[in-house]
Amino acid sequence: MTADRTGGEALTHESEFVFRDLHARQNGWSARWLLIGQHGAVELWYFTQGDELAPRRDGYDGTYMGGIETHYRQPPDYMRDDPPTFEDCDVLRGLCWHDGSSLAASEHYLPRALDEREDVRSMLLDCYRSQFGVSVDV
After folding, report:
1. 9-27, pLDDT tens digit by residue?
2. In this structure, how many other beta carbons lie within 10 angstroms of the beta carbon of residue 43?
3. CA triple 20-126-85, angle to 5 deg
């Protein structure tokens, strides 16, 4: 094991994560991918309006909303003095300090997630590594 940036133990194997791939249709389409681990979770999501099945791959066109979100079990340094964002987070099932970006989702993550050659789980593992400062063996 290696230490993460908070001084704790890092996750050592991909099998220690729960990955969920959720899709639904209700007034458009929605997708939600979750990767949940010891330190928290990363979540990629989008929903479209009307009959569009997925966001356009060539950039944001106003027909969908989406985000890449980080759910922290413990506050990161920049949120150290903040109360939890959620008392009962639907992803972590408890306290959560939450941050995210629609811009990063529409410009970076969603185009890759919608490209059938890219594995969303691997992409979220990379995001988890980056957000939580841990190493993960695959």
Report:
1. 444 445 578 888 877 766 6
2. 23
3. 65
